[in-house]
Each structure stands twice: as C-alpha cells, then as structure tokens.
Amino acid sequence: MSIADTFAKARAENRAVLVGCMPAGFPTVDQSIEQMIAMHEAGCDVIEVELPYSDPVMDGPVIQKASDIALAAGVRTRDTLKIIEAVASAGATVVLMTYWNPIEKYGVDAFARDLAAAGATGMITPDLIPDEAGEWIAASDRHRIDRTFLVAPSSTDERIAMTVANCRGFVYATALMGVTGARKTVSSQAPELVARVRAVDPAMPVGVGLGVGTGAQAAEVAAFADGVIVGSALIRSVLEAPDRATGLRRLRDLSSELAEGVRDR
Amino acid sequence: MSVERLPDLSGHFGRYGGRFVPEALIKALDELEAAYRSAKSDPEFQATFQDLLLNYAGTPSLLYRANRLSAALGAEILLKREDLNHTGAHKVRNVLGQALLAKRMGKPRVIAETGAGQHGVASATAAALLDLECVVYMGETDTERQALNVARMRMLGATVVPVTNGSRTLKDALNEALRDWVSTVETTHYLLGTAAGPHPFPEIVRDFVGGIGVEARQQCLDQLGRLPDAVAACVGGGSNAIGIFHAFVPDEGVRLFGFEAGGDGVATGRHAASITGGSVGVLHGNRTYLLQDEDGQTIESHSISAGLDYPGVGPEHAWLHDTGRAVYEPVTDDEAMAAFQLLCRTEGIIPAIESSHALAGAAKIAPRLREELGRTPTIVVNLSGRGDKDVHTAGAYFGILDKVEPVVPGENT
Which is a Pfam family this sequence falls into (chain A) (predicted)? Predict the structure, then answer.
C-alpha cells in the first residue's frame, strides 16, 4: 500500500498510523527480516527500515547499539535493499530511514531506482534538509519514492512551510529537541509542532517520532498526530531479550500494544 | 587569481561544505551565523577579541628564522611560532573567538569535542576565563591515552564526558557533542574545534584563526621585504592550515602545501589522509573528502598524531585541493617523527607531532622548490603547537623512556 493510502485508510478508521522502526541486519539479516515481518503482522502499518550507519548523530544509545551490531556483522547497503524486498513482499508498507552519505556513495539516482525496485514506497532523511536535497528531489521524483524530511520544535514557520512543500507521503515531526529514544513522558512540544504543520498544509499527514515507547504514549500522540513513530522501544525488546524466541515474542507484544494505542485516541 | 568570496551565501565552497545536519539544529546555525555577522562588523567585539589575543593569548606569535634547520633542509625556513601561544597551540585563537560569541548570544554553556585533548583544554581555558560552563566530549580510548589532559580540563573546571560508543575516538566524541547540542541548543554553544562541520563553522573558525596568516604575511614583508615562496602546514581537520593559508590565497606566487597524516603509509590503508587517500562524501555536517568504505561507512583513521587522527577534513581544503590553489601530500608517522627529532636537535624546540608533519613536508618540498626556482627557497612553516603533550608518545617511539617503577604511596621507596 502507498503511504498516502495507508494514511487515508487510518483516517477513515479514525485512528493513527503506527510506524515501527528496525535497523536492517540487526542482529543478522535473516533475523531482522523475521522481526520486521513480526512487527507487520502484529499491527505496524509501516515498517521503517533503518540503514545502519557508522555515525548516526540523530540516534540515541539503543539505535546506535543496534546499528553497531548490524555493521559489525557485516551488513551492506545491498543487504538493506534485499531486506526491504523481503518485507515488502510479505505485504508490508516499507519506508527507509537513512543518513545521507551511504546514499551519495551508492549513487543517488541508482539508489532511488533500486529502492523503488525493492518495493519501498518512501525514504526518511534525518540529516538531509531540503536546502541540500536537489539531487535527491530529482531522483525521488523520477523513481516515485515519497520523500520525508524532518521538522523540529525549533523550526521557524518559514522552514516548516518550505520543508512540508518538499515532502510527499508524510512529514516527520521530531517531538522534542533531542535524539531517538523512549522517554517517560510524551513531549509537550509535539502538539504545537503538529498544529504548526497543519496550519501550513492541512492535507499533509504528520508522523510524530522521538520518545514514544508504550501503548498509552502511542494513544496520547495518536490524539493529535496522523502517525506515531516508534523505534528504540521496539529495538530494545529484541536487544535485551535472553534469546531469539523471547525477543520475537516481546516485539510482537509491544507492536500489538502500540497498535491498540493508535486506535485509542 | 580572482578570489571569490567563499563560502557562498548558502555556505558552500564550490560543491563542498553546506549543512548536512538534523533540521533541529538549523535554527541554531542560523542564529550563530547572524550573531557572527553582527560581531564581525562590531568594533567593540573585534576590540575585545584583539585585546584577548594580544594580552592573554600572547599573539602575534613570532616568525622565527630557523638557521640551523634551514642549513639542514637546504631552504630558508621561517617558523610561525604558534607553539608559544597560551595553551601551546593555535587553537586558543578559535576558542577565544567562539567563547566571546557564546557570551554575545547569551548562552551560558559551551560543549566541545576533543581527540588528544588540546581543543578540550583550550575550550576549558576560554570557558574559565569567560565564566562559561564547559562540557568536553572525549572518546574513552583517548581519555585513557591522554589522562594528563583530562586532569587539565578538570582543573580548569570543565566536565569531561568519556564517549563509549563507536570507535571511542574523536569522530565519536563529535557525534556525541552533536547529540548533546540537539538537546540543549537553547542554552548551549557548540564550540567546534576545527574548520569543518556545518556552515557557518568552517567560515567562523577560519576567520578566528586567520590572524596566523595575516601576521605571517606582514612579518615576511617586514623581515624579508618580500613574500615567501611557500607556506606549509599540517592538515587534520585543517584549522591551523586554513588559518595560515587564507591570507596568502590571493598571492599567486606563494605556493600553499598541506601535509596530511599518512600514518603507516597511504597504501597500507592505515592513515588519516582524507584528501590524498579518501574520497568525496558527507560527514559531520559537511560535504568534503573523507575516509569511507564502498558503502559510505566512515573508516577509522590512524596516525601517531592524535590531533590529525580524524577521518575528514574541512571543506575549504577540499575546495583548495580541487582548484589546485593548494597542494596536499601525505607524510608518514616515521617521516614526521624524523622531523620532530631534527627540530629538537637543531633548534632546541620540541614541536607537536601534528606540526612535525608540516616540518617533514617542508623537508620534502625543499629540493623540489630549489630545482624549480633555481635558488634557495623560502618556506614558512606553521609550527602550530608545542610538543610537551607528546613527550610520552615520542619518548616511546624513540625508545628513550627509562623504565620507572610506579611509586606506591605509603610504601618505602
């Protein structure tokens, strides 16, 4: 399903979209596919595959650790594309989250082509702002990949307008000034930021990420946003599990809990 | 050559530089740029900065004609003695400028990344002087290697945070400082230690350290009545090099040479030579040359010099390289250490191992320039720092450390 259809369907059901994030190749290529399919089956509407990167400045300790494990196990960019292909074939809507350098190194147009061929519908770029994204905008248009840029509580109204104008699919609102990672409470800055995006473009779906880790928090965010993005809490359920089966079970349980949350707005 | 005003309005040096950071930081970068523009044209800010440089940091630094070294290298060597500055390196110029800027922006806290600890010590120094809170991120591997500098920073009142993720070195300290900054940007200035990172840092750092070249150029005119044939500097991130190059860029007759850390040799893959041994990509907020694998993952750098042990380089150097205005070459650990020893023995000056790369480079280009010019060439070498911090590394390299049993307090010794 396309990103637009996924959000439209959720809107029709009066609920928010649940986006679940998992690094590609963590802890191995096969296990990451298994985990992503489990998340999909347990209620994640969108699987956000994160391409592991050596210098993830937007990520907190959990995603850093998972990325390090994946890289140490030898995961390559082409493995990430294979993983996307496997998860998309299982019926999931897949977007890629990636820092910019691996894409530039692969070749921007070639990557957009191969990403589309693998079945991903969109790409989130945490360290690429539209101001620097000329080549990406052209390539993603050519190969029909939805573009998600970030907005932050510190973004000026002018920048929010410019950023939203360059997004297609959904815009990623970082709920707080900080890096990824579950927090005890949902950021008080998030509702205002979502409102500021809506003021610019009421039709553009807004996904809120950073700091959400429980069903109750998902419900809280679902009350004011179109999408709830969860990463670290899901990853931690695998990271801290004593064995593979327990990790998968905890991952399914948390995904279900979050899926209920986005329906309880 | 016609000198374009760089960076351009969007913060690029040709295709290099720019801003590759999370959106959350853009407002802070815009504010920093605006604060810098207004400070640059504010006579009071400039007077305060110049006063600190003159009366606190001890600049202008000397331009010293090194006669015995000159005889050994077959060139007239002039040393720009940045090693004599307060805190022992050119870095004091940058930290004083940026700390004043933090004050001007009303930010009570500064954060910094450091590798060997030199930028951390300089930042802690400026923070103490200007009454700012200071937090320094340092890779855990480096806090162990550089325990004395950790103690120095703490003496000066700074908090040192050992970084335990990634390779636990400078690049990871930089990542962690960026993560802190995303969370604390309202109250915190990121006191970046080199002429790299997202715009406007490469420009700000260049301008604050640019006095090195302005002074050296005037000192050449005063002492020689002419400009030198070449200027040589070491390049890690590249702040000392851009600091001495910048004033000479319009002088077509002055050749500019940047010497990167060649480690065990560029061919071995164990080096920190981003321009001569790397490729173009994006790291730490800017497009530049860096060490990366075929997937664009950063490769760890290797150098005997902790200050040059960084897998990227400032974007203006990338541009100067592509345009051919400056020439970049690698210098191996062994070549640098030979130059280190030569300066100790000929001039009674213990240089930083970083600066020893510039000395070794000068030794390499001296015969080439002599042939090209048909006379003895004049080379200004930026002696960017002193070697006290490197005594342990150099002592171990040369095998001249006596084995001393550790003294256990309370025992008879």
Answer: Trp_syntA
